[in-house]
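A quick aside before the break. I want you to see a complete sequence-to-structure record at least once, exactly as it would be stored in a machine-readable document. Don't worry about memorizing anything.
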Amino acid sequence: MENSFNQNRVWGWGELALQYFPNISQKSATMQLLKWVRVSRELVDQLEKSGWHPGKKYLTPRQKDYIVRHLGEP
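That is the input. The structure line, written in tokens, reads:
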């Protein structure tokens, strides 16, 4: 059976952030994930080329995969 994290679906930014930071509030988790993403210019470039920008609330499966490739699975 496929792990729900690996399903090919749209993810909310806050939803993904809580996967990485499950023990803090969603607001804090989203800010922390954005900080982590911004550390990698390569990751930001990939995300922006795919239509992402800071403040966007949803991620396509490809955008989520870019993040996981750079940060590792939560």
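Two observations worth writing down. Helices lie at 13-20, 26-38, 41-49, 61-71. The beta strands are 11-12, 58-59. We'll return to this after the break.
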